[in-house]
Amino acid sequence: MIFLDELSKSFGSLNVLKDINLRVAEGEKLTIIGPSGSGKSTLIRCINGLEEPTGGSVTINGERMTRANRTHIVRTYCAMVFQQFNLYPHMTVLQNITLAPVKLQKKTKREAVEIAYEYLDLVGLRDKAQAYPATLSGGQQQRIAIARALATRQKILLFDEPTSALDPEMVQEVLDVMIRLSHQDSITMVVVTHEMGFARQVADRVIFLDNGVILEEAPPLEFFEHPQNERTIAFLSKILR
Q1: In b/e form, how buried is each residue of 84-106, taking b as 16+ CB within 10 angstroms?
Q2: What is the reported pLDDT for 31?
Q3: Are 130 and 93 in contact (CB under 8 A)?
Q4: Which of 8, 9, 17, 198 is the most buried (most CB within 10 A)?
Q5: pLDDT digits (tens, 9 = 90+) for 52-103
């Protein structure tokens, strides 16, 4: 579903990603971990077309991404949940969720509303449909952001540290929604996260990224119990302490 070939990204003289090669199978749940500044967010933003690679390529479902087709590919296959919720404050929850299906996917208002309620049920917030974002907790806003991404019914869901902006007591309610999503075989998930318990529980594969390079990748049991790279071992010893 996702193929990165020798992907690199630089900002001026700063090389953030260095010749990344990565394949993500359809339906796979991939988690990306690593220290701050390692290139995790840049990697996922390249997949979603928000950053243009300096070198190499991104291919989604067999279509190589170019400047000309980037918007088409992203709108066809990808939805993203960011660190910040990015909900429109002047719109109700229902209006936030139905906007993309109506404007971009040309759904009828009735179809979009039916889809919105389907995913509001999934995230447990049907009763907040007419509420405005400012009246919701951070955890509720992020669950709405997930519902909004799901409402586009894309095959690929990308998460860029979706719990990092939340108070600790709100983290689990968002992770619970993501855990439920991980049980759906039709969805490919790529998750940048600091939540090691989540990565261990739901990932098919865990990648450790450091200084713009993939240093280690393995199934979660092998990754957490028997890491091979010295840098991975040092990182996990601090995180899991």
Answers
A1: ebebeeeebbbbbbbbbbeeebe
A2: 97
A3: yes
A4: 17
A5: 999 999 999 999 999 999 999 999 999 999 988 889 999 999 999 999 999 9
Q: In what order do the strands lie in the sheet with 63-64?
A: 14-24, 2-11, 55-60, 63-64
Cα gap 20→92, rounded to integer Å: 40
DSSP classification of residue 16: E
Vertex 192: Cα angle to 82 and 241 (nearest 5)? 125
Instruction: Give whole-number Cα distances, 52 to 11, 15, 77, 212, in Å.
Output: 11, 13, 17, 16
> Would you put residue 82 in left (φ > 0), alpha (ψ -120 to 50) or beta?
beta
Angle at 156 between CA 152 and CA 157, to 5 degrees: 75
- Look-up: residue for tokens 């996922």? 44
8-state DSSP, 165: T
Cβ-contact 30, 199 below 8 angstroms = no
Cα gap 109→231, rounded to integer Å: 51
DSSP category for residue 136: S
- E strand segments, the chain: 2-11, 14-24, 29-33, 55-60, 63-64, 78-81, 156-160, 188-192, 205-210, 213-218
